[in-house]
Amino acid sequence: MAALGWLTPRRRSATARSVLAGEAAAEAARKSAQENAQEQEASPASAQAPGEPEFPVAGDERAAAFFDLDNTVMQGAAIFHFGRGLYKRHFFGKRELARFAWQQAWFRLAGIEDPEHMQDARDSVLSIVKGHRVSELMTIGEEIYDEYMAERIWPGTRALAQAHLDAGQKVWLVTAAPVETATIIARRLGLTGALGTVAESVGGVYTGKLVGELLHGPAKAEAVRALAAAEGLDLARCAAYSDSANDIPMLSLVGHPYAINPDGRLRKHAREHGWRLRDYRTGRKAAKIGIPAAAGLGALAGGAAAGIALHRRRR
């Protein structure tokens, strides 16, 4: 499957579909945040790490923080964990599982987002959930978070998010994952809300289509811009955090961009532009400096096979 042109680094400006996706994500995020605010309980304050600058600024209500999800807040990709949970519940068969396992193995080893994998995962999830009720998938999403996602949250990134909350600022996830999944994760982490890909639903039932496009790359920047306008935020006083060069458009919008567990392209860009870097990974040195092609492919194939075998043993 060929990658969509707007997902490639050569993309120059947001398309109308990216703008639509961003605005839909912002609207959904604000609605979910209002609901979350009624349920959240105060979280204990976390100490600021030694050497951290005096940031965020306490009491600055026109500042907020925007966090990418995959490999920034959580190890791996949420959409692949979600697919794993749906397989366990017999939403699809072993062929789709093998594809999810391969994509997740690639993402965890290479540490970068592959546009074809993202597109393939999007199409797979849309076809899988078509005809199901939104409420059903929300309930299942809660279960999948407990089963596969909760233990994969990066403590370091979680502490950064908490620092913004402790300063009285709103904190939003910004992700290509379905907005329902992203909202669950945000609520579980005590965050304000989430901007995510909005799947069309009619009468509470998924149609198998998207509103706009996948919230990825330039569409994330459009979502942040739309939310900032609606919330009265000053982007120059806001912060954004991501691991991927695909999110440079979003990171470039704010006055305080952070590269978290960065891929090679983002690391280089961050150093050239004086952006702050944080790396909370362990055991990732080989992937970061490069692995011979044969060894890398072998590891990917082994990871995929291991994932499938693990599911078979558990059944």
Detail the topology: elements first, then pairings.
Layout: H1 16-37, E1 64-68, H2 78-88, H3 94-110, H4 115-129, H5 134-149, H6 155-166, E2 170-178, H7 179-188, E3 193-197, E4 199-202, E5 205-210, H8 218-231, E6 239-242, H9 248-251, E7 256-260, H10 264-273, E8 276-278, H11 285-289, H12 293-314
Parallel strand pairs: 1-2, 1-6, 2-3, 6-7, 7-8
Antiparallel strand pairs: 4-5
Helix pairs in contact: 1-8, 2-3, 2-5, 3-12, 5-7
Give a description of the structure.
It comes from Streptomyces luteosporeus. This protein has 315 residues and is of the alpha/beta class. Helix content is 50%, strand content 13%. It is built from twelve helices and eight strands. It has a six-stranded parallel sheet, sandwiched between helices. Strands 4-5 form a two-stranded antiparallel sheet. Strand 4 and strand 5 form a beta hairpin. Helix 3 packs across helix 12. The longest helix is centred in the first third of the chain and has 22 residues. The radius of gyration is 19 Å and the shape is globular.
In short:
The protein is of the alpha/beta class. It has helices spanning 16-37, 78-88, 94-110, 115-129, 134-149, 155-166, 179-188, 218-231, 248-251, 264-273, 285-289, 293-314, and strands at residues 64-68, 170-178, 193-197, 199-202, 205-210, 239-242, 256-260, 276-278. This is HAD-IB family hydrolase.
